[in-house]
Amino acid sequence: MLSRVLIILLLLAAGTARAQADGAAIIALDEVPAFSHADGFFQHFEDASGKVTLPALLENARAFPFDVGDGSVLNKGYSHSAFWLKARFSLSAQAGARMERYLELDYSLLDDLQYYVVNQGVVEQQWHTGDHRPFDSRPIRHSRFLFPLTLQPGDEKTVYLRVASSSSLRMQLNLWEPFAFHQAERIHLLLDGLYFGILLLMLFYNFCLLISVRDISYFYYIAYTSSLTLFQLAMTGYGFEYGWSNLPAINDHLIPLGICLIAIFVLKFSQRILALKKHSPGTHQFFNVVVLVMCLGAFASVLLPNQIVIRPIIFGAIVAACLMLFAGGRESLRGSVTAKWFLLAWSSLLLGSLILAMMSMGWLPANIVTTNAFMFGSALQVALLSLTLAERLNQINQEKTRMEQEAKRALEVVNQTLQDNNRIKDEFLATISHELRTPMNGVLGCLEHIQHEPISEKAETYRNYADRSARHMMLLVDSLLTYTELQSGKLALDNKPFATRELVDASRELFTELSKRKDIALNFFIETSIPDQIVSDFTRVSQILNNLLDNAIKFTHHGQVEVRIHGERVGANPDEFQLLIQVSDTGIGIAREKLDLIFERFRQVDGAFNRGYGGLGIGLAVIKALLDQMHGSIDVKAEENKGATFTVHIPCRYVLPTSETVEAEPLVISRAAVLRVLVVEDNPVNQMVLKGLLKKQGFDVSTADNGAQAVEWVKENPVDAILMDCQMPIMDGFQATREIRQLPEPAASVPIIAVTANAMSQDRERCLSAGMNDYTSKPIDARALNKKIIYWANVNARGQKAG
Q: In sequence order, what are the residues at sequence separation of 6 or more whose Cβ sits closer than 8 angstroms to the Cβ of residue 764?
């Protein structure tokens, strides 16, 4: 009897020892719900050497003590050790049918997994898999690791699981009934699909914006989102399952490479979106240093094993995250709306990561929200970063609009300044014109008086030189004023009939003496087909011809200068034709390569010409601009040292003979009696010169020093014509004209001819608008003025008779 008791006690002790060796508890599979966290079912043993095998465990269980877990997820971080996990499962004999379960290891980045099912010391099932082995090595094709566990009624089996990895050793175990797993998997796939769908949608949307906006910020956003998508495909195992299932080596490098790419592009994105180069240059440079380090990390992650590079890379990523939070927070405190959106985006990602970490530590319950917190956070972050880009674009557009408005206001100020400057310039030129023409009128008038006085031959020579020099100076002044008017767009053409012979005679008189002095033949040829009178702007046509002649004589040292004038009919209108003026010389010519330069303002073929030949360098520029205004053209043929030929084409009209023309013609040249002329001029010299010139023509001349005196004189004395200066003290010529026009007849209709030193185009219009009948500028052409006085006196007389 005693021996039987001892045997029973020994058996119980042996059973207790075996139970301690094999595990503290046996899990009744039929009592486990359809889904259960299995972390509490398993014991674990750390194999620091990594050399322990399953046969060694089975043969000598006491040598490898397993620790009983506390039910939390076994997380050993980065470790070189291998870990064995063991659990015993049984199925009651009363179960009635076999039972199948899935043991899930819910982390897809584990390098090496060995799964064994042992029944009474015999290995019944085994699989060797992991993300360093082909995907087909898995017993069940899935992105996460699933192992089958099947028990018949009355079975008791032990499951061994060996885990080794260069990545983080997070061993979260779940036990699933297959149908429950597939039901839950539908929701899981739906959430994953929604997540990756959001990433792809943001990629496509911002790619379209990149094409439209062409802002590099969108490129960095797309690169970051693409890197995040690739990283998440690797983390979730979908990339291995559907992408590179036969290339497991990619898994070892893709995670650290993905972390580096994410850090690089998000740092560059942050630099642009926060405008750190402008607002915080020091932080911007520090960002560049971290980007450079992460680029080196990306290069190393391709060449070196994961276990070597992963920790430094993760540290670099943490530094990058802290740096971005710091920069975003500082810019937010400065009031940047874009930075606030940026900070909100990163806060959502950090919050998701924090929730996932707290769930993994067991501090938060595992549910659909906590399990997928990182995906929710990163999806929200990507969406918020897209909104951040939109806000930045909006800020840029607002800034652009503000700058455009400021630029518009500045441009308006500049335009107003330019207008003021142009007005001042015009006023200055008008003043210069007046101040130059007034004394020159006296000079030329006095020279003309001397012409009719007996003087010595030597004095006559000096007088001629003085006259030509003064007239040449007026040619230069006229060119400068004309060019200024052309540039400001204020030049107005005055198309009227004029005699072709007058055009030629005026130029011949101006340049004959100069050409004789240089011993150059000056020849004029007018075709007989040219009518006696044509309609164009006499002043401008004369100016074109005179400038061409001035250049031709200036650059010719011997030989001749020849002027040919002829015409060509154009169009179907019988009164339209083209006036052709051809000026040829035998001078120094022009090099072919420099022909395009001669029409530029203040430009001569050679800068030395300014010293050797003088001139302003605007003669040809004035001619070209005038012809453009007159819808004409100019051609030049020249060869160096062989002379030049300039041909001008000017649209004109014939003066067709009419009854009005025949009747009007005698009025221009006839005078029945002595005409009474009132000269209104404040300058004593000009008053004297003008009075002397008119008296020589047989006029009865009276004078007034200002407009007020002129009005009083007209009230008391009959006059046939008034020569009115415009700029005078007390009352100017414009006001005097208006007041005279208010007087009773016949004083109100007396012809008034402006005789003024104001020679710009608008001056003529201003005189006519004030009520004057005609206009002539100083210096005075005595013959032209004589004809104007006779013409208007006769017109007025005929009008009074008709009245």
A: 492, 494, 754, 775
So what's the pLDDT on residue 735? Answer: 92
Name the helix (H) or strand (E) containing 258: helix 249-273
Looking at residue 455, its amino acid is: I
Cα(314)–Cα(328) distance, integer angstroms: 21
Task: Locate 512 and state its tokens.
Answer: 């004959």
Q: Which helix (H) or strand (E) holds 67?
A: strand 67-68
Residue 246 has pLDDT above 70, yes or no: yes
Residue 405: CB atoms within 10 A of its CB come to: 10
Q: Which residues pair with 577 in a beta bridge?
A: 569, 652
3-state secondary structure of 554: helix
Q: pTM score, two decimals?
A: 0.56
Residue with tokens 């061994």: 160
* Residues contacting 51, CB < 8 A, separation 6+: none
Give the pLDDT confidence of 709-735 residue by residue, as tens digits.
999 999 999 899 999 988 888 899 899
In tens, the pLDDT along 751-799 reads 999 987 766 667 788 888 888 998 887 777 777 888 888 888 888 877 7
pLDDT in tens, 608-632: 444 444 444 567 888 888 888 888 8
Q: Which two tokens stand for residue 66?
A: 């397993």
Short-list 780, 502, 799, CA closest to 667: 799
One-letter amino acid for residue 593 of the chain = E
Residue pair 109/164 in contact (Cβ under 8 Å)? The answer is no
Identify the sign of the CA torsion 396, 400, 402, 406: positive
The torsion region of residue 594 among left (phi > 0), alpha (psi -120 to 50) and beta comes to: alpha
DSSP string, 262-318: HHHHHHHHHHHHTTHHHH-HHHHHHHHHHHHHHHHHHHHHHHS-HHHHHHHHHHHHH
What is the secondary structure of 351-418 as a DSSP string?
HHHHHHHHHHTTSS--SHHHHTHHHHHHHHHHHHHHHHHHHHHHHHHHHHHHHHHHHHHHHHHHHHHH
Beta-sheet pairing, 676-680 with 752-756: unpaired
Question: From CA 215, how far away is CA 283, in angstroms rounded?
Answer: 22
Q: Token pair 């208010």 is at which residue?
A: 742
Please state, in angstroms and rounded to a whole number, the distance separating the CA atoms of residues 117 and 123. Answer: 6
d(CA 127, CA 137): 8
Length of the chain equals: 803
* Higher per-residue confidence, 444 vs 46: 46
| Whether residue 305 has a cis bond before it, omega within 30° of 0 | no
226 band by pLDDT with thresholds 50, 70 and 90: very high
Q: What are phi and psi of 78, to 5 degrees?
A: -90, 120
- What residues does 277 pair with on adjacent strands? none
